[in-house]
């Protein structure tokens, strides 16, 4: 059975690094670098999820608009139509969404508010652990 987002959050915590939509891309690059993360969330009124900005958006901005884009606001390049998962979303469901929609971050929404974030790294870590546990169970079964 697949583990839930809630189980992952209980282990890794619910803190999410956010950024103002008015911050510049240079500020965003610094935040991603300093926190060793690949994406940051933009909050709307009442801690709702208004957007997501990832290293992929940074690369696109520079490729499209040149180095001057580093002075432009995050709001000009963030994705506003965010897929957010819930605490009861399973890791299997997340893997499916991340693979088909080709993104590596899923903010978690609870009561309409941002309540955590799951990255593809969290999903892979969990998947490997599940495979290892299954292998151990099979070995124990064979050994009797
Ligand atoms: P990523 O692979 O997460 O770096 O993101 C690739 C692209 O998808 C970027 O344009 C992101 O802004 C966007 N993106 C990332 N996560 C999400 C998400 N949960 N919902 C919608 N778009 C996303």
General description of the model:
The chain is α+β, with helices and mostly antiparallel strands and 144 residues long. The chain has one domain: CBS-domain (Roll), CATH 3.10.580.10. 44% of the residues lie in helices and 17% in strands. It contains five helices and four strands. The strands form two sheets. The chain has a two-stranded antiparallel sheet with strand order 1-2. A two-stranded antiparallel sheet has the order 3-4. The protein is elongated. The two termini are 23 Å apart. The site of adenosine monophosphate has 14 residues, from strand 2, helix 3 and strand 3. Adenosine monophosphate binds next to strand 2, helix 3 and strand 3.
Task: Summarize this entry quickly.
With 144 residues, this protein is an alpha+beta fold. The chain has a single domain, classed as CBS-domain.
């Amino acid at each position: 059975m697949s583990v839930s987002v809630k189980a992952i959050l209980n282990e890794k915590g619910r803190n999410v690094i956010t950024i103002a939509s008015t911050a510049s891309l240079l500020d965003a690059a610094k935040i991603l670098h300093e926190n060793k993360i690949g994406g940051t969330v933009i909050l709307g009124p009442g801690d709702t999820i208004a957007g997501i900005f990832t290293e992929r958006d940074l690369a696109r901005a520079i490729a499209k608009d040149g180095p001057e884009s580093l002075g432009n606001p995050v709001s000009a390049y963030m994705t506003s139509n965010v897929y957010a998962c819930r605490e009861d979303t399973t890791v299997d469901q997340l893997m499916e969404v991340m693979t088909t929609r080709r993104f590596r971050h899923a903010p978690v929404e609870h009561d309409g508010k941002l309540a955590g974030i799951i990255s593809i790294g969290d999903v892979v870590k969990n998947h490997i652990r599940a495979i290892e546990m299954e292998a151990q169970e099979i070995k124990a079964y064979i050994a009797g």
